[in-house]
Design brief:
InterPro entries: ATP_syn_F0_a_bact/chloroplast, ATP_synth_F0_asu, ATP_synth_F0_asu_AS, F0_ATP_A_sf
Structural class: mainly alpha
Order of helices and strands: HEEEHHHHHHH
Protein name: ATP synthase subunit a
Distance between the termini: 64 Å
Membrane topology: Multi-pass membrane protein
Main location: membrane
Number of helices: 8
Helix content: 55-70%
Family: Belongs to the ATPase A chain family.
Number of strands: 3
């Protein structure tokens, strides 16, 4: 191990670096070779863990649906039904439009984001060290050149992708409920309006600027809120892990507190998604 890799800074940097894959003139390249690859660099650890956890979510709920019965439910069925009813109640209280998509979407967001956040409770050195061992023994790669971030929501690319999906749904619902003309009017005739046609025309650029900023700020805040909270939590786990065996009691204390953050951030992301889609589908204008 190189001396520079023994420092706390290099330890933190290693744990906060994604496993990258990119295409170069010489073919596929990985990690450090992708430092200048530009936009089209794939974070393969984020993709693998997020897709894997998404499949796990589908398998769990599919299994619960297949085993569901009208008699006395088992503990597993009760647990799944509690989650479904919890999400359904929040959608019913928050979304004031009519759509068969919102409840399944809200359930997917809540459980999927929760599972991705939950990976933060796995000791920070365990899976990255295992990945390094596999790379070193199986492929002859220096273990310190193998990167593995197992919490997808600590990657701004993942949270931005989730927020972008919500943003596209907001626009889609807005156009569906109001029509293209109504959607454009909402962006250009609010919040300032006047009965004088000339004044109203002059106000259009200001309204468009303010409404566009307000529209874009919603997914932007969604992405940064989830990323910031989970990134900060992961950083604290890494700092605790750097102290050696004495990390165990501190890790436990922080993990107990962080469970609240994990659940809360999944809930907040779900609720804001429902609120934004409810606002987009509102016909008040």
């Amino acid at each position: 191990m190189a001396a520079e890799e023994l420092t706390l800074q290099s330890h933190i940097q290693h744990h906060l670096t994604n496993a990258k894959m990119c295409s170069t003139e010489n073919g596929l390249a990985f990690n450090k070779a992708c430092s200048e690859a530009g936009f089209w660099t794939w974070h393969i650890d984020t993709l693998a863990w997020s897709i894997g956890l998404g499949i796990l979510f589908l398998m769990i709920f599919r299994s619960a649906a297949k085993k569901a019965n009208t008699g006395v439910p088992g503990k597993f069925q009760c647990f799944i039904e509690m989650i479904v009813e919890f999400v359904s109640d929040n959608v019913r209280d928050t979304f004031h439009g009519k759509s068969k998509l919102i409840a399944p979407l809200a359930l997917t967001i809540f459980v999927w984001v929760f599972l991705m956040n939950l990976m933060d409770l796995i000791p920070v050195d365990f899976l990255p060290a295992f990945a390094g061992w596999v790379g070193e023994t199986g492929f002859g790669v220096d273990s310190h050149d193998v990167y593995m971030k197992i919490v997808p929501t600590t990657d701004i690319n993942m949270t931005a992708a989730l927020a972008l999906g919500v943003f596209l749904l907001m626009i889609g619902y807005g156009i569906r409920m109001k029509g293209i003309g109504g959607f454009i009017k909402e962006l250009t005739l609010h919040p300032f309006n006047s009965s004088n046609m000339v004044v109203q025309v002059l106000l259009i650029p200001f309204n468009l600027l303010l409404e566009t900023i307000a529209l874009v700020a919603k997914p932007f805040s969604l992405a940064l809120r989830l990323f910031g909270n989970l990134y900060a939590g992961e950083l604290i786990f890494i700092l605790i892990g750097a102290i050696g065996l004495m990390q165990l009691p501190l890790h436990f204390v922080w993990a107990v507190f962080h469970i609240l953050v994990i659940v809360l951030q999944a809930f907040v992301f779900m609720m804001l998604t429902i609120v934004y889609l409810s606002m987009a589908s509102s016909e008040s204008h």
